[in-house]
Structure formats: structure tokens, C-alpha cells
């Protein structure tokens, strides 16, 4: 079979592979069917700073910058990049984004003879990379190897719990694109974001559990679990907050609580129902204007027994961008005493308006680190960025 023919049943062959053999299976398939000379799987680390080449799992090769060079360009742009290596007139390397429903995992790099990297082959390789990304995600249920390969150093126990609690770092549908970021990635304790979508709605929450380390992680895990339990029972947004509030108060008696912002989007109309239970702040970018959406501040979850919560509503329009930041972002202070949320946050949002939601969220955290003056932040920082398209270009 030559390179112009499609790879037969690549998805089924990947699905049949043992979880730890996905990389070897991908190499064999691409060698057999498109003449690949070399195949490398690179996974983004938790801080989204480097891409790690997976060699003999769980070990990795030398990391590659996630935002520079041909590999970084493929990761950021989410499009294939064809590289002609120096001194290699007869070979091309095709770098292909590994993405699952908007969640960026890494890059698949495939070395081909120069004549084999035609547009049709690149398109087939793109489909193959997507299939491989889905299998890497599925394999994570059965093996730790790919999670181990993502880390440049050991996670704290609290961070391990928080990353396992997250739905991912991105999500995309026709109506919206979400990008999110957490820092400090390897020691985060209490910050969390969560989302769930169905045919007509998107529910998004950002939670900031008080405290640090394992205590904050346990508190946030209970809050997120209670919110999910209520949501999956088909309960409305305000009642989700009420039930989670009761669960936290029953466990902690008001001594510990979690600040949470709950949002529920109607995908048809752009109506957003909101419950502001604490400190996460919400900003909207419409055209070139940045404004904070002022919601009625209600009590954090678990502060008092049987707190009643009320919903508010606002609208989003096609082209709007929403940004949610935890208190560790908007409240972070520099050495001169100024908070990041006063001016620097708005400046960063304005400067990244044309970037993807993933890169905008990362840029906010990078700006925060620069403002604070150290990667050793005083508090956890969570940023969620959502670009809204809506349906049928309607409101």
C-alpha cells in the first residue's frame, strides 16, 4: 500500500492496542502505511510550558518549548506545521496537534520523506492524530503512564487530587470554546473549574476552596462532588448551590467554605443564569471593551447552615468573550501593594483579545506571575476563558 491510500482501520487498530503500547502501535501503523521514518508523541506538561517526548514510558526525552519552534506553533495554532529540518533536503517532519473536543494534549511529530508530505497525506495524518489523542485519553483510565509522562516533577498530593478532579483544560463545540489554566500547576490545592454540556445548555463553575494544601483540596473535592451530584439530579442552578452549601456545612460546620461562581448558558438564546457564591470574578469582552459583570455577591458555600441562593441573568452575544478568575488572580498583590485585578488584569485581557481562549487564559497567569514577581504565588490561581458563538449567529 502506498502513501496515497488511506490508513485502513487505524482507529480500530489503535483501540485494540494495550494502553501502554499506543506509541509503539502508532509508529508501526504510520511506518507501514505512509512510510514514516520516525514518530514522536509529545505531551504537554501540567504548567503548559513544555512538551515532553514520550520515549520508554513513563520516561520522556528532552522537553521542547510549548510556545516556540515548529512543535510549539502546531500546539498553539492547533494546525499542522510542516518542518524542513536543517541539513535534510530529503525529509520533512509534520507536527500535528493532539486534541480531544477542544482539550489540547500535545503534538504528534511524524518524519516523512519530502515527497510524502503532500496535503492529502497531511490531512490523513491529522485525522490519525485526533484518533490517537482520543485513545491516549481513554488509556488514562487504565494506566498511569501518560499522566506520568506529562509531569516535569512530582505533584503534591493536593495537586494530584485537583488535577484528577478537573474535566480537562479545554472544551469546544459549535456554540463556544473554553480554555482554562491553573497555577501553581504542581502544587495547586483549592482552585478548580468544572463544566458539563448537553443538547441545549452548558454549565460552568469555578470554585476557590479556602486554605492551602491537602485541606483546601479535600474541601474543594467535596464542593465539586456535591455540585455535580445536584446537577446530575436535574436540579436548578440555585438549588445546586443550596445542596452543596448544606454538604459543606454538614462536614465543616462553617469553619471552612468554598467560594464558587455557577453559570448556566442557554445555547439557543445566549441567556446566562448565574449564582455568585463568593469571590471568583467575571469579566466580559465585547469588541474591544472589557467590563466586569457585577453580580449580586452571595455567601460562599458552607459558611452558614441552609443558605438560600438566588439566580441572576445576563446575556452573551456572538463574539463575546467571558473570563472568570479566582481570588488568587484578581486579589494578588505586587511588592508595591497594587492588586493584579486593579489594572494589570484588564491590560492583559485587552492585549490577548485576538488570542485563542487557551492562550488568553495562559497569558493571564503569565501576567499574574510577572505582576507578583515570582512563580511561587501566594495563592492558587484559576482562569477560565470562554468564547461565545451561539447558534445561527443569533442572540
Automatic annotation (TrEMBL):
The keyword RNA-binding does not apply. The keyword Hydrolase applies. Keywords: Hydrolase. Residues 173-388 form the PPM-type phosphatase domain. GO terms for molecular function: phosphatase activity. PANTHER family: STAGE II SPORULATION PROTEIN E, STAGE II SPORULATION PROTEIN E-RELATED. This is Phosphatase. It comes from Streptomyces humidus.
